[in-house]
Amino acid sequence: MKIDFDGVQAFVAIAELGGFNKAARELHITQTALTRRIQKLEAYLGVRLLDRTTRAVELTVVGRDFLPQARSIVQEMTSAVERLKDMSQHGRGNLTVACIPTMASHVLPGIIREYARRHPRNQVRLLDGTSDQVRTAVLHGKAELGIALAGESQPELIETALFSDPLVFVCRTPHPLQERKTLSWNDMRGIELVRVSGLVATRVVMDYQLARHNVRLDAKYEVDHHATAVNLVAAGVGAAILPASTIREGDRPGIRKIPLTGPVVKRRVVLLRSRRGSLSPAAEAFYELVRSTPVKV
């Protein structure tokens, strides 16, 4: 059923203000336009709502009966429109972001803190997973935004480059290499290493680049998650090759992070969104904040 909102709004304004002149001024339209709205509404309903004379306007019996419902329609519609305008202007609402776990170590929390400061009424839900899982979540609408590693381009997704994340050597002091300012990959031969599983995108990037430069490393330990590797290193179990964003210098007492060269191996972190449809105001605000926030690794 089609509801003639303009006509209902005009009827309520006339009933509450007591005349066409005041109602027309309130609605910022001419009296002629106001009259047409009422005539159209009455024609649609098939009943007369107002009795008009040269001196006064009175509600008919049907008009008096209809007024409470009409007033409710106008109030609800006005409130709904104001809420939408508020969401649009202030980026209000809730959103879901899918991200790779390393982003949740210290990069993403800082962004979320700033987002919460700007939009304290919004709720943010995080889905962490592999880069493939992040892409799937955005593609299937489970998350409006995703933060993942650059991979094979997909036509359904828009990828925005965020930063390059170099791999670094992470060790616990004391360690024979702890005083070095940089390390080459060959310097790590014979070192007890913890490496992440071959199913993790970081490992894929590392193995590809090392194969190109004919560098081979053997690891004594293998784990599925970067956080597990950090915990093992912190406990004195080997050293690890990890993305720089995984840990900041000073986050863990006694842990050193040393840049790797020859070659420098970087993974590229990207921001994902679907090409289908537009973002919600809350997601748009988060998207712009992520894009504009410099990342230090």
Automatic annotation (TrEMBL):
| Statement: the UniProt record of this protein carries the keyword Transcription | yes
Matching Pfam families: HTH_1 (PF00126), LysR_substrate (PF03466)
Record-linked InterPro entries = HTH-type_LysR_regulators, LysR_HTH_N, LysR_subst-bd, WH-like_DNA-bd_sf, WH_DNA-bd_sf
Keywords of the record: DNA-binding, Transcription, Transcription regulation
Q: Which residues form the HTH lysR-type domain?
A: 3-60
From which domain of life does this come? Bacteria
Q: Which PROSITE patterns match?
A: HTH_LYSR
The family classification in the record reads: Belongs to the LysR transcriptional regulatory family.
Task: Output this protein's name.
Answer: LysR family transcriptional regulator
The organism that produces this protein has a lineage beginning with: Bacteria, Pseudomonadati, Pseudomonadota, Betaproteobacteria, Burkholderiales
